[in-house]
UniProtKB/TrEMBL annotation:
The keyword Cell inner membrane does not apply. Belongs to the pterin-4-alpha-carbinolamine dehydratase family. This is Tetrahydrofolate dehydrogenase/cyclohydrolase NAD(P)-binding domain-containing protein. Keywords: Lyase. Gene3D superfamilies: NAD(P)-binding Rossmann-like Domain (3.40.50.720), Transcriptional coactivator/pterin dehydratase (3.30.1360.20). GO terms for biological process: tetrahydrobiopterin biosynthetic process; tetrahydrofolate interconversion. It comes from Zooxanthella nutricula. It catalyses: (4aS,6R)-4a-hydroxy-L-erythro-5,6,7,8-tetrahydrobiopterin = (6R)-L-erythro-6,7-dihydrobiopterin + H2O. InterPro entries: NAD(P)-bd_dom_sf (IPR036291), PCD_sf (IPR036428), Pterin_deHydtase (IPR001533), THF_DH/CycHdrlase (IPR000672), THF_DH/CycHdrlase_NAD-bd_dom (IPR020631). The keyword Lyase applies.
Amino acid sequence: DGVLRVLGHYGVGVAGRRVLVIGRSWLVGRPLAQQLMSRGATVTVVGSDAEGLDRLCGDADVVISAVGRPGVVGVDCVKPGAVVVNVGTTFTDDDLLPDIMPEAEGPHPASLLVHSVGPMSVALLMRNVAANARTADVARAEATADTCALPESAIKKRLQSLPCWSLVDRCGHSRLQRAFWMPTFACVVDFISEAAVLADHMNHHPNLQVTHQCTDGAVLDVDIFTFATSSVTSFDFELAAALTRLYQDMFGAGIFAPDVRMSDFNYTLPDELIAQYPASPR
């Protein structure tokens, strides 16, 4: 990418031109050759020990060396007006030597000689790291022992915006609780699967208990509290609100409710409890 950026910066087009890439590594040479070919260049890829390398350099309109062998491309091998880009470098005790050595005296025959793309590569690497960080799904920080517990007054006020949730005390710890009714056990399983992904993303997790009611559906009891503080915190309200939205998205705002059967309300009233008419005087 650094080489292509440099060529683009100097207005060097590669379409229809002969490009020689010296270096067949999977890190630089071969990926670069593929990108150049996708832009219409006629590309030749060789190693530093290729037979007739001087001739290949003399025929190329663009020479790119990425082998890490000082002087692999001599000045007298480059045809006048060619574009030469040096990628490979070699560390010595006292210096950093490029693959393409500049001419000691006088102008270089190349119309453009790029001594190094190192700074460009570093800049692009940092750009890619930053771009990846912006798009990465980073888990939020979890609650700790220093997370502030909400006072009861604040909890009750927040509960006004979370219908069906309540504040309960269990084992000496306050927690938020709600029962989610669903028509089938399979629906509960689907909901729990989605809730697990959601909780992992929020880095905060609920406690769940499923009660299957046969033909009357199933109930998922959810209670939420912050384990690190053994109290209710803002983390719990955020998770409760997210689970509520998930429930509404999956099953609709109207929500499922068990069918009302009149037989459930049948009862027998003993005759002696039925008022007689005319009533007997008391």
